[in-house]
Amino acid sequence: MDPVDWTGNRHVPNLPWIKLDLTTSQGQAKLLRMIEEPGVRFVHLGIPCGTFSRAREIPLPAHLLARGMVEPKPLRTEQQPWGFEAYENPRDAIRVEKSNELARFALRVIERCRVYDIPWALGNPRRSLTGARRCRRRHGRDGCALSNSTNCRTTTRVCWWRTRRSRTTSK
Fold first, then answer.
1. What's the rounded mean pLDDT across residues 115-121?
2. How far apart are CA 34 and CA 45, in angstroms?
3. DSSP code, position 155
4. pTM, whole model, 2 decimals?
5. Which of 72, 92, 101, 103 is deepest in the core (most CB within 10 A)?
6. What is the secondary structure of 33-95 as a DSSP string?
7. 109-145 exposure pattern, b = at least 16 Cβ within 10 A, e = fewer
8. How far is CA 72 from the centre of its chain?
């Protein structure tokens, strides 16, 4: 099975990949069918971090504000991990709902992998608001940010592409 990414990816991958919009029922159905095909040995998935990121909680430095940059506002909290009831910017509401749909679908993918006994991993930054703790409660220790083939959680440090910034992948 080739890797899958969303249709709006602005980056150019170095290998063949399948473009799907996993916020649609058609894209989700196609991916679930692909998981059922013979030969799938492992599934790794990630949820877009934009709306789940805690970086939105960090105030911008004064020099960036002086240049006219707008400070991003948190779109979720620990108490409201699925987002707020209302947003000033309608675009934020759409982004949060699409990210929520992808998070719910990730749980469906994990369930499908469990049914077919396919090892899986879900990348999840350590302090993200993705609800990984709820996922672990629902799926046991063999869940988020880990592979169910090892029945344990794995914490790794990874560097962002072409940066020196490091991030840790579990909590």
1. 89
2. 14
3. -
4. 0.73
5. 103
6. HHHHSTT---EEEE---TTT-GGGGSPPPHHHHHTTPPPPPPS--SS-TT--S--SSHHHHHH
7. bbebbbeeebbbbbbbbeebbbbbeebbeebeebbbb
8. 19
Q: In angstroms, rounded to a whole number, what is the distance separating the alpha carbons of residues 103 and 48?
A: 9
DSSP 114-125: HHTT--EEEE--
Task: Please calculate the CA angle 138-34-10 and round it to the nearest 5 degrees.
Answer: 90
Distance CA 43, CA 113 (A): 8
For the segment 46-93, what is each residue's pLDDT rounded down to a tens digit?
Answer: 888 788 888 888 899 999 999 999 988 899 888 888 889 999 999 999
Name the one residue in this structure whose structure tokens are 């469990």.
114
Burial of residue 101, with CB atoms counted within 10 A of its CB: 0-12 exposed, 13-18 middle, 19 or more buried: middle
Cα separations (Å) of 26 from 20, 72, 125?
A: 9, 32, 28
Do 1 and 39 touch, CB atoms closer than 8 A? yes
Task: Find the helix or strand (DSSP H, E) in which 10 lies.
Answer: none
